Amino acid sequence: MTGLVRLTRLPVAVVRTGVEVTVAGTGWLPGGAVGAGTVLVAMCTGPLVGYFLPRVTVRLPTPAPAPSPAGGGRPGR
Fold it and tell me: pLDDT at residue 72 above 60?
């Protein structure tokens, strides 16, 4: 899901809804049942993930740059 968000640059809610609808449709094609619960989950999961994901994401601190080696960083001199 997050890979598709980066690739398409669409919001998480849109990508997740697309994934859910595709999965539901794939299950329906060979004769699976699609009821009100299936439609509700497919249509609500994307917006809920889009709302809550930024609120629960842990942001890691950026690492400090590595110190340059003694001697100016020119090997062999």
Answer: no
